[in-house]
Amino acid sequence: MIQDNIGCISELDFSTSLFDACHEGNKSLVEVLIQERVPVNEANHSGFTPLHIASHEGHTNVVELLLSKGATEVVNKVNENGSSPLHLASHEGHIEIVELLLQNGANVHQVNNLKTSTPLHLAVHENHKDVVELLLKIGAKVNEQNKNGSTALHLASYNGHTEIAKLLLENGADVNLCKSDNRSPLHLACREGRVDIVTLLCEHKACVDQKDNDGRTALFYAEKYKRSEIIEILQQASNPAV
Questions:
Q1: In this model, does residue 6 exceed pLDDT 60?
Q2: Which of 57, 104, 226, 241 has the fewest CB atoms below 10 angstroms from its CB?
Q3: pLDDT tens-place string over residues 66-77
Q4: How confident is the model at residue 136 (pLDDT cuts 50, 70, 90)?
């Protein structure tokens, strides 16, 4: 079967064939192409290496093979969007690949070219709790801010990822750290109607009176969007003796 594959591609660009094989997860073909001295670390026009592609598609055995054949040299290489293989695997929730990449020198703190996201930001946004746990265990900076000032807790609060928010708080997330618009995680949770998150943040001493750049508190957003249950939670947090 492998010989048939080789015969089909004998007149084609071997490098392109390696990208295709990595995309499809065809480990046997990847092995043959590497034996034919196809460059393992060559990037395509978009800056993707074979390792980027296999990491994004979740082909653990191919990633393992590539790393054993020299792809450790490009483990932190970024594509035209500034994403490393670890960014891609974290975004897609491929926990085994995330672990492999980290074991082979992937930088858990790496941000893209525009400083928009770390692997932790991406895993939190996509609600991949197991990946978040691993990244935090390795030492990901829980309070790292992206270009808009959002932390992982902002993303979890906005999207309603309660279990991840708990995990972040347990690992030192600053409940009152604000974005560039001076909005805290509580502002976002109230605006989006995330009752469980609001409760959790208030339990961790979120500042109910924090004002954003427009002079608005979390209560303003709860009232604006008629979040009656959240209004009660905020009022209780403001007057705990009541």
A1: no
A2: 241
A3: 999 999 999 999
A4: very high
Tokens of 111: 């941000």
- Mean pLDDT value of segment 57-85: 98
Exposure string for 89-121, b = 16+ CB within 10 A, e = fewer: bbbbbbbebbbbbbebebebebbbeeebbbbbb
CB distance 230 to 191 below 8 Å: no
Q: Specify whether the CB–CB gap between 133 and 167 falls below 8 A.
A: yes
- Cα gap 194→225, rounded to integer Å: 12
Q: Can you give the length of the chain in residues? A: 242
Torsion over CA: 40, 43, 47, 50 (sign): negative
pLDDT at 79: 95
The pLDDT, as a whole number, for residue 65 is 99
- 46 near 76, Cβ under 8 Å? no
Sign of CA dihedral 17, 19, 23, 28: positive
* Cβ pair 207, 184 in contact under 8 A: yes
